[in-house]
Design a protein that fits this description.
Keywords: NADP, Oxidoreductase. This is Glyoxal reductase. This protein has a single domain, classed as NADP-dependent oxidoreductase domain (TIM Barrel, Alpha-Beta Barrel), CATH 3.20.20. The longest helix has 15 residues. The strands form two sheets. Strands 3-4-5-6-7-8-9-10 form an eight-stranded parallel β-sheet. It has ten helices and ten strands. It is globular and about 55 Å long. Strand 5, helix 3 and strand 6 form a beta-alpha-beta unit. It is of the alpha/beta class.
Length: about 270
């Protein structure tokens, strides 16, 4: 199966299919090094968020790299306490300022805060029209959240970033998003490391001389999922992008799909304590 290393979003923006997530990465040296190592290794998508409190380090890592800004796809996210129309506009300015950038490539609503995400989205649409966010989307939105948002939205979200890994394959939600032409992006794509010992994944890896993590990342890619594994170790960062020289068979994919247990390792958007 040949596929592009990038994906075209509904508005024509081009997003890399594989990037670096920086959740729980400490601001300062750890964030700077992780981002620089990733860009040196060939990553072109960096995913952060206001609540990660490492936007400053991420921006510095980008500037310290030799990769031109226009070749890097930068995502950040609006935190729950900043939701609402005016507060979203202010929070976005703060994120841009911390990153030290003129624009981001993707801005996401981090969680569906009831009675606030519609006003937040109105501000996101304004930010998008200004060109300071090249694409806008949501994170942790279920079908009913998207349907509700679309009752007032003028622009359909281009991305929904959700918890997704072989123990939580999210197939009904993925099907729904595909019908709406909303790209699926996975957070905690390796199940926070809790599924790396799984015998099926390990065995499939042995066939290709790859780790379970590399098998999972390849499964995401072949399933049309944008994937952002996190690491602060240079060798692991390099290993996670070394997934373009092998291909899982249909049988491999089927076996991995069957590992689904609808098991979350992160928060459930229906029960999140906003």
């Amino acid at each position: 199966m040949t596929f592009e290393k990038t994906k075209k979003l509904a508005n024509g923006s081009i997003i890399p299919r594989l990037g670096l997530g920086v959740w729980q990465v400490k601001d300062g040296e750890e964030a700077v090094d992780s981002v620089k190592w990733a860009l040196d290794a060939g990553y072109r998508l960096i995913d952060t968020a206001a609540v990660y409190k490492n936007e400053v380090g991420v921006g510095e890592g980008i500037r310290k790299s030799d990769v031109p800004r226009e070749e890097i796809f930068v995502t950040t996210k609006l935190w729950n306490t900043d939701q609402g129309y005016e507060t979203t506009l202010k929070a976005f300015d703060e994120s841009l300022n911390k990153l030290g950038l003129d624009y981001v490539d993707l801005y996401l609503i981090h969680w569906p805060v009831k009675d606030k995400y519609k006003d937040s989205w109105r501000a996101m649409e304004e930010i998008y029209r200004s060109g300071r966010a090249k694409a806008i989307g949501v994170s942790n939105f279920h079908e009913h959240h998207i349907d509700d948002l679309l009752t007032t939205a003028e622009i359909v979200p281009m991305v929904d970033q959700i918890e997704l890994h072989p123990a939580l394959t999210q197939e009904p939600l993925r099907k729904f998003l595909a019908e709406k032409n909303i790209a699926v992006e996975a957070w905690s794509p390796l199940g926070q490391g809790k599924i790396l010992e799984n015998a099926t994944l390990v065995e499939i890896g042995k066939k290709y001389n790859k780790t379970a993590a590399q098998v999972i990342i390849r499964w995401h890619l072949q399933s049309d999922i944008i994937v952002i594994p996190k690491s602060v170790h240079q060798d692991r960062i390099k290993q996670n992008i070394d997934v373009f020289d092998f291909e899982l068979t249909e049988e491999d994919i089927k076996q991995i799909n069957q590992l689904n247990k609808n098991e979350r390792f992160g928060s459930n958007p229906e029960k999140f304590d906003f």
